[in-house]
Specification:
binds inosinic acid, globular, Maf protein, 6 strands, alpha/beta
Length: 192
């Protein structure tokens, strides 16, 4: 089984990525290396820069990931600032901002960046369309999972789904599937 280093401090992201990548014969290893996160409005730039910095520092091929919740009625807020907004106003703060908004549409986006030492990052994107719920529901997952209802299933939030159910519908599942397909093609010996 191939092994790939994932530069992140978020164990939920590692769990979700592991579930997807195991289907492509890839084992995910979390690293102690502190992810470098530049200020940018582009998930592509943030993920790409983090992967490139880590690949060069560790002299190893790595993946990094950046993601965020983009709410239509709030002109895409919190978007690339999702991590900070989650730490400050949290799910309840978003629900308050959304309480008078009839348009509940939102989407999660994820960009996975793969980078080898001395090379340019290669990017893989995934999106999950859905709506912001009226209240927090569920205890699984992390971040804004309790207030996001993905389209195409039922009225449950991500936090009311198992990791497998979320993986099937999520932005991260889509981005890592796209990376897994590419990796399998590029490294044919890595397969299960
Ligand atoms: P970052 O990618 O580490 O900068 O963090 C993005 C932030 O967006 C996280 O801290 C979460 O608050 C939120 N987020 C990203 N993906 C998800 C997800 O799958 N579920 C819930 N919240 C998420």
């Amino acid at each position: 089984m191939a092994e790939i280093i994932f530069v992140t401090g978020n164990r939920h992201k590692v769990e979700e990525a592991s579930l997807t990548l195991s289907k492509y014969g890839i084992r995910v290893k979390m690293t102690e290396f502190k992810k470098v996160e530049i200020q940018s409005e582009s998930l592509e730039e943030i993920a790409g820069n983090a992967a490139q910095t880590a690949a060069n520092a560790l002299s190893a091929s790595v993946i990094s990931e950046d993601s965020g919740l983009f709410i239509s009625a709030l002109a895409g807020f919190p978007g690339p600032y999702s991590s900070y907004v989650f730490m400050t106003i949290g799910c309840m703060g978003i629900l308050r901002l959304m309480s008078s908004q009839p348009d509940k549409r939102a989407q999660f986006r994820c960009v996975v960046a793969y980078c080898a030492p001395g090379a340019k990052p290669i990017l893989f994107a995934g999106t999950s369309l859905g709506t912001v719920s009226n209240s927090m529901r569920g205890h699984w997952g992390f971040g804004f999972d309790p207030i996001f209802v993905p389209s195409g299933k039922d009225a449950r939030t991500f936090a009311e789904m198992t990791t497998s159910e979320k993986e099937f519908l999520s932005h991260r599942g889509a981005a890592f599937r796209s990376f897994g397909q590419w990796y399998e093609k590029t490294n044919p010996s890595s397969g299960v």
